TrEMBL record:
Top-rank taxon, per record: Bacteria
Protein's UniProt name: proline dehydrogenase
Cofactor: FAD
Domain Proline dehydrogenase: 37-293
Reaction(s) catalysed by this chain's protein: L-proline + a quinone = (S)-1-pyrroline-5-carboxylate + a quinol + H(+)
Length: 301
């Protein structure tokens, strides 16, 4: 229903014209890289580190895939030139993954060549279930080529997640993973339908990855998961340098800064770009609970 409303030409036209002023700017750091970098500087000033993400809609041809690739290269150049403390996240479908794996690999190597040149880091976002196998294949190839300069996202709500992580952890040292609950609406054949089970599995993979000695990005706004991580690292004397918390730009900003004051690394996912409307709509529509979540967190500290 949300997407059908969002897809209405009158609604979308109004929101695209006025949405940034009416509230979207809370969650999207501008339409241009320059605007986004200014926000990154402000976040850095408060002790927060960042991952930048150039927003893109569906890619239907090679020209569009190249445009998205060029934008990613510009992000890395912008980070280097401005001196901000940020890495980059991307979705491989925006680089042409649905057109061909070869095209996507070509673009990924261009991006990672630059990340390695600048000694920066690129996080590959995990997308819906249909893209998981090919994403894992590509990550394995790129991890062997680029080592510490590339990382991956793992989703707790999938049944296969623990097995996927075991295989990755047995294969690589210093494996940098972002652990999330998962935001896509998937079939109960492949994903836990109940949040209680998702939360249980999320705790399991946080503990599993940390105790294996790998770098762990705990990407959650859930106090239960944040406190679970704090207790776990304290119990096992895990150094703060082995993990970080991650949250979305504009969601619980005061909590983000409180974590920094407590001595934890706190990374903010900062999206920007002309295609912010699609991100904003999907953030709410991907899972029904997100609509309530966004509204609730607008009033939380």
């Amino acid at each position: 229903m949300v997407l059908s409303v969002a897809g209405n030409s009158l609604v979308s036209g109004f929101i695209k014209k006025y949405g940034m002023k009416l509230g979207a700017a809370r969650f999207v750091a501008g339409e241009t890289l320059k605007e986004a970098l200014e926000q990154v500087k402000l976040l850095n000033r408060d002790g927060l580190v960042v991952t930048l993400d150039h927003l893109g809609e569906f890619v239907f041809n090679e020209d569009e895939a190249w445009a998205s690739t060029r934008a990613c290269l510009d992000v890395l150049d912008g980070i280097k030139a401005s001196g901000v403390n940020s890495n980059m996240s991307l979705k491989m479908t925006s680089l042409g993954l649905d057109l061909s794996k070869e095209l996507c690999m070509k673009h990924m190597r261009m991006i990672l060549d630059k990340a390695r040149e600048y000694d920066n880091f690129v996080r590959i976002d995990m997308e819906d279930y249909a893209h998981i196998d090919v994403t894992m294949e590509i990550f394995n190839e790129l991890r062997q080529e680029y080592g510490k300069h590339v990382g991956l996202v793992i989703q707790a709500y999938l049944y296969r997640t623990v097995d996927d992580m075991k295989l990755l952890e047995e294969t690589y040292e210093n494996l940098n993973l972002r652990l999330v609950k998962g935001a896509y609406l998937e079939s109960p054949e492949v994903a836990y339908p109940n949040m209680e089970d998702v939360n249980k599995n999320y705790k399991k993979i946080i503990e599993m990855h940390l105790l294996a000695g790998h770098f762990t990005a705990v990407a959650s706004h859930d106090d239960v998961m944040i406190n679970f991580t704090k207790d776990l690292v304290k119990k096992h004397n895990i150094p703060n340098s082995q993990f970080e918390f991650q949250m979305l730009y504009g969601v619980r900003p005061e909590t983000q800064r409180e974590l920094v004051k407590e001595g934890y690394a706190m990374r903010v996912y900062v999206p920007y770009g002309n295609d912010w409307y699609g991100y904003f709509s999907r953030r709410i529509a991907e899972r029904p609970a997100n609509a309530f979540f966004i509204i609730k967190n607008m009033f939380r500290k």
